[in-house]
Amino acid sequence: MKQQVKIGVVCLARKTFDYQAAEVIYQGIKKELQLIEYTDFVFINELVIEVEDARRAAQKLAQSQLDGLIVISGTFHLGHLVLELNKVIDQPLLLWGLKELPYDGGKIRLNSVCGVNLNASNLYKAGVRGYHYTIGDTVDQDWLDAIRVMAAWRDAKIGLAGYRAHGFFNLAIDELNAYRQLGFLVDHFELEELYSYVVAQKTIDEKREKIKSIFDTSGLSELQLQKVAELSAKLDNFINQHNLTALALRCWPEFAAKFGISPCAALSLLQSEEQIISCEGDVEGAVSMLAHRAVGAETPFLADLSQVDFEEDYALLWHCGVAPCNLWDGSCKLTLDSYFADGKGVTADFVMKSGPVSILRLDSAGGQHRLFLQQGEAVAMEKALKGSYARVKFERPVREVLQLVITKGIAHHVSMVYGDFIKPFEILARIKGWTVLK
User: Fold this and answer.
1) Among 104, 353, 372, 411, which one is least packed by beta carbons within 10 Å?
2) Beta-carbon neighbour count of residue 42 at 10 Å?
3) d(CA 351, CA 329)
4) From its phi and psi, is residue 335 left (phi > 0), alpha (psi between -120 and 50) or beta?
5) What integer pLDDT is reported at residue 253 of this predicted model?
6) Does residue 190 contact residue 220 with C-beta atoms inside 8 Å?
7) What pLDDT is recorded for position 341?
8) What is the CA angle 421-412-230, rounded to 5?
9) Three-state DSSP class for residue 142
10) Which of 302, 303, 335 lies closest to 316 in space, CA to CA?
């Protein structure tokens, strides 16, 4: 389910052009926009023509707590208008130009694209660089999705249980810089709060039955199975009680020793139930997964770029058994196993399904955020090792992908989802002034 957003809409015009035709087009646009799911639109119903119109529209829209503003150039118009709107609204802008209508007696009727050009130039030279533009009959839904990501981050309540994993300095974040640039705060919890969290036995039993209905658990002892069910119930209820949007969890080295199992298998189950949980205390990993969900991607997988094969040109996106179990390929045996940490490292073991994939990492270095983006195809493979994994062939040679990751120092976790989810993040990077690494 996509992130809900609220978007303001205005249509600018000038009476020296065919403003009446622009009015008709605008009424049609309003009807079409209202069909878009997960989006509330706040319309200025009348054309904005004079400077005072723009000021009144800005004041009205300012009361609605918008996530973004669409400015349609119904015709060419005064350059003051968008500046007056931006002065008060100060939200990401979509400049929307209309296709030119057939000429009427040799006269251009709308001159809408020139209006977009005027607005963009005025904004740029005023230091406003985060605008986006589109020309055509329909709104740019990739821009809407970029706004969804920003809203999801702003509204998020991110939990960090424990700390980053031992030695994973590259997963640490500057929390106040993240607050400034993304809008969320991190709530800290001690791991002991999870270990000792009390849940009803009935809830544990329900998780146990669900686990047994999904996985082959024959490789586990009764104690291990009970621990997975118990931890699944604890994590699920803990996240819900604290109203967390996402949780970054320090899953080692303490978990196996102090709780009795690693959390991998529990995370596989809970993520298939729409919880966002990143392992190894990776807050930016959790935020990357949250961004994918905001644009409508289902059950992100936080993966390592674990192995590369330059001859066959693929990478293995692997992690030690935490992938959402609903991403199973439907062919191999879907098992729980305890292959590490002296039998306490209970993991979900399976090959992930085939299909187009998109990869995202929100990453920071030197106080600056950047977005790592890739597309590829998960291809079929035999179950040959423990953990959960997909063999991915990228759109570019894997050698080049690896070189980009290494030379730019990208953190070793990425959010992988099925489907094409690239363009919204390119737009997002432009709005935020971030670098895209692709």
Assistant:
1) 104
2) 16
3) 6
4) beta
5) 87
6) no
7) 65
8) 85
9) helix
10) 303
Alpha-carbon gap, residue 341 to 437, rounded angstroms: 36
Q: Where are the domains of the chain?
A: 5-139, 153-437
**Residue 257: per-residue pLDDT:** 87
Which of these, 46, 36, 41, lies nearest to 11 by C-alpha position?
46
Distance CA 283, CA 71 (A): 35
Burial of 124 (0-12, 13-18, 19+ CB in 10 A): exposed
Q: Is 404 helix (H, G, I), strand (E, B) or coil?
A: helix
Instruction: Tokens for 115, please give them.
Output: 């209006």
Report the residue count for the chain.
438
Same fold, 5-139 and 153-437: no
22-39: burial string, b at 16+ Cβ within 10 Å, e else = beebbeebeeebeebeeb
Ranges of residues in the chain whose predicted pLDDT is under 70: 340-341
* Fold held by 5-139: Rossmann fold (3.40.50)
Q: In what order do the strands lie in the sheet with 277-279?
A: 186-189, 158-161, 246-249, 277-279
Quick one: residue 44, left, alpha or beta (phi over 0 = left, psi -120 to 50 = alpha)?
beta
Can you spell out the DSSP letters for 102-171?
PPBTTB-S--HHHHHHHHHHHHHHTT----EEEESSS--HHHHHHHHHHHHHHH--EEEES-SPTT-GGG
Distances (CA, A) of 320 to 284, 348, 358: 19, 8, 20
Beta-strand (E) ranges in 297-367?
A: 301-309, 314-319, 335-338, 346-351, 355-365
Cis check: omega of the bond before 92, within 30 degrees of 0: no
pLDDT of 166 reads: 87
Residues facing 346 on adjacent strands: 338
- How is residue 132 written in tokens? 């986006």
- Give the C-alpha distances (Å, rounded to integers) separating 285 from 196, 225, 415, 428: 26, 28, 7, 17
Q: Domain 153-437, what fold?
A: L-fucose Isomerase; Chain A, domain 2 (3.40.275)
Contact 193, 199 (CB under 8 A): no
For 325, the token pair is 């179990």
Angle between helices 201-214 and 264-272 in degrees, nearest 10? 90
SS3 for 119?
Answer: helix
In three-state form (DSSP H/G/I as H, E/B as E, the rest C), the secondary structure along 209-222 is HHHHHHCECCCCCH
